[in-house]
Design a protein that fits this description.
Blueprint lengths: L1 H25 L34 E2 L5 H4 L3 H13 L1 H21 L6 E12 L10 E17 L4 H68 L4 H36 L22 E2 L6 H4 L1 H22 L4 E12 L11 E10 L7 H67 L5 H35 L8 H5 L2
Parallel strand pairs: 1-4
Antiparallel strand pairs: 2-3, 3-5, 5-6
Helix pairs in contact: 3-5, 4-5, 5-6, 5-8, 5-10, 6-10, 8-9, 9-10
Length: 489
């Protein structure tokens, strides 16, 4: 009989060890899926005019390794970004979500440890005589002190650990999402500032044009009064002035809207009205960046890191749902002293204790555990698809930014040449009109095209600068502000 009992015991522990081993093996997080993009950037993203040496690490920097203060060199822009990081409400909400996820992880992690509580009791009761064998009422007192272990699950199958891992990955995903919001905010502020300076420069061009055409209208009005020109010529000059004035008003409206949008990002629009009006410098705004390889995005983009943590959390939930099929073993107990008299709590023989292990074996639940497992697996599959889509989106954003940087640089060169041609054309048209060889309509067309060329050049230059901002953000730049940088504020 004893041999059968020992054999059954050995068989039980063998099954238990095998189950524990299988649970440990299954608790290992699966590797992320392979990179669902090309191994190199598209051919149209390379700048054919850029020297090969410009792609060396000595002359360029990786966006993830370059703090935003090292990338944006304009002091006013640095001030705006710093204010936005301090005041932006979306970023504040993201910080609060990180704290919530941290607290949720702490709550779930505490389930791994036993909960020990101290307890003190004092009870005084009276039993009537008709409920007592002696026929007389009895008054009794009970006092006790104990330290108890509340229900603590022995996590043999890894269910609690898996839930803890899922909470940890959720916290890490939330923190990475906060970094992604930070990157996006820095890019939005930089692009908003560039848009504001673009409009300031275009307004300055429009102001100079309006002043010049007002002077032309004064001169032509005098000529018309003395009869040297026709009224048609006068109305054409007046038309040029009205067109420039209309453009000036439209730009002022756009500038006000841009300032309001930037003020919302920064948290205050007070200093936006005092921005300078000088032309943007194309050579000293940003540090050169190198794109690296598509695989670098896995460690540099915070949104990809957030998607990966979400994927790992989904897999941890699958392991927890699978472990729910196994029995749960929980321990409950307490140890202390009890006595009918208060001064007898610490006398010999007053020790009291209890120990209650429980085993819960799932037998029938109407398919609830199976449905929970199916749900966890479906969510894990969704997380895989979201992770791959996030990588593909990041790849496209970087490729678009590289392509924009290349083609906009060519457009800037073409637009500069166009402006030179239009400037010479306007000069020659004015000479032809002054010599009587052409009607003023030719001057009208040349002046209108010249103003358009000036405005377009500013817009294309701003687009080129914005492409650098977009590339910096797409490569994950600005996700973390090093302590050394924050100390220098």
């Amino acid at each position: 009989m004893r041999g059968d009992l020992q054999g059954a015991r050995r068989q039980f522990f063998a099954v238990l060890a095998a189950t524990l081993l299988s649970g440990c093996i299954s608790s290992a997080p699966p590797a992320p899926p392979p990179l669902p993009v090309q191994a190199a950037w598209p051919a149209d993203t390379a700048d054919p005019n850029a020297p090969q040496a410009a792609e060396t690490p000595q002359e360029t920097a990786a966006a993830a390794d370059l703090p935003w203060r090292g990338f944006f060199t304009d002091p006013r822009l640095q001030s705006l970004i710093e204010k936005a990081l301090d005041n932006n409400r979306d970023l504040r909400a993201a910080v609060s979500r990180v704290e919530q996820a941290r607290a949720a992880y702490g709550i779930q992690r505490s389930a791994l440890f036993p909960q020990i509580e101290g307890d003190a009791q004092a009870t005084r009761s009276r039993v009537p005589g008709d409920l007592n064998l002696t026929g007389r009422p009895v008054t009794a007192s009970t006092y006790g002190l104990s330290v108890g272990l509340t229900t603590w699950e022995l996590d043999l199958w890894g269910r609690v650990r898996s839930l803890k891992d899922a909470a940890l990955q959720d916290f890490l995903a939330t923190r990475a999402a906060q970094s992604a919001i930070r990157v996006s905010l820095i890019g939005q502020v930089a692009n908003g500032y560039l848009g504001l300076r673009e409009l300031d420069e275009r307004i300055a061009l429009a102001d100079r044009t309006v002043a010049s055409r007002q002077e032309s209208l004064r001169i032509f009005t005098r000529r018309y009064e003395v009869g040297s020109i026709s009224k048609l010529d006068l109305t054409q000059v007046d038309t040029l002035l009205r067109q420039a004035q209309a453009l000036r008003v439209q730009l002022a409206q756009s500038r006000a809207n841009q300032a309001h949008a930037l003020g919302l990002l920064v948290g205050s629009a007070d200093e936006l009205e005092a921005l300078p009006v000088p032309a943007q410098s194309d050579d000293a705004v940003f540090r050169p960046l190198r794109a690296g390889l598509p695989a670098d995005l896995l460690v540099s983009r915070p949104d990809i890191a957030a998607a990966e943590h979400t994927l790992q959390a989904a897999h941890a939930n699958v392991r927890a749902a699978r472990a729910a099929f196994f029995p749960r073993i929980a321990l409950t107990g307490d140890f202390g002293t009890a006595s009918a008299e208060l001064d007898g709590l610490f006398k010999h023989g007053s020790r009291a204790w209890s120990f209650t292990p429980t085993l819960a074996l799932p037998l029938f639940d109407g398919g609830q555990r199976g449905a929970n497992l199916d749900l966890a697996r479906a969510r894990a599959n969704e997380a895989v698809a979201d992770y791959e889509k996030t990588i593909q989106t990041a790849f496209r954003e970087v490729a678009d930014a590289l392509s924009d940087r290349r083609w906009l640089a060519e457009q800037v060169g073409i637009q500069r040449a166009t402006l030179e041609v239009q400037t010479e054309r306007a000069r020659l048209a004015q000479l032809r009109y002054d010599s009587g060889a052409a009607a003023y309509l030719e001057v009208l067309d040349a002046q209108r095209d010249l103003l358009d060329a000036q405005q377009q050049l500013v817009q294309v230059r701003r687009g080129l600068l914005s492409s650098n901002v977009t590339l910096y953000a797409a490569l994950g730049g600005g996700a973390i502000d090093p302590p050394a940088q924050s100390d220098s504020r």
